[in-house]
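Example (one chain per record):
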Amino acid sequence: MKKKDRIYLIVFVIMIMIPVIGLLFMERPSEAGSSSYQMTDIDDQSVRIERMKYNLSDREISVPEKISEKKVTVLGESALKPGFGVNREKTSFSIKQNMAEKVILPLFLETIEGNPFADCPVLKSIEVDQENTHFTYTGGLLINKDTQTLIACPRSTEGSIIIPEDVLHIGEKAFYGCNIVEVKLPETLESIGKNAFASCLELHQITIPPTVQTIGENAFDRCGNPRPGSLAVRRAGGEIDYPFTITAQAGSKAAEYAEETGYPLSLTE
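Predicted structure:
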């Protein structure tokens, strides 16, 4: 064989082997029952679910207790996000979003990163295994008992919400896209996470206690349904109105936040 032909043969073999090697090293979904999961090992006994495979038309999604004999202890922020091996079942119309109304959380779950339930636009409830000691679902709110953090409020929630007094933190995207019209924050609250109330279009006012020391970026983005890219709406006749107001104590972090971001501020004594 000529030297030139050998070079061509080597190049050909390399081109064939590259995709094969890639398949060997890429992260493979692990099968558990009829569903698939993209996951990473935490240790020899536990795993973190990165993404889940499900039917978009499923009304109920169950997070497994174990995958390949390893306990599921962490649920990633994108775990319920459509796109990873989703079965796009067709009904009378083409389903393009997660239709789950209920998500069930398992016994061994210890950590939920961010708010994966924000990817469930018609979610009505979250069920926590009765023997799980880390989370509780009460008053329509999912709470991490270890960190006293409010993780999520299902997006189908409407009306008024009262957050329990033992909650110290409201997590990122906790109320994202909810249809709430009123929320009462506890006097013990210390922080409000990024996008915590983002896209709560029916929420027009919030009273923030002076105990709050941190308010994340875009915490109230599009509250009250303002114009895109604005804090205001234009009423009939061209009048400009601000559909969302922050009520806070003078000199508080909340008052400072309102002044910095441009939200209308109503001061209390």
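Caption: The domain at 157-269 is CATH 3.80.10.10 (Leucine-rich repeat, LRR (right-handed beta-alpha superhelix)).
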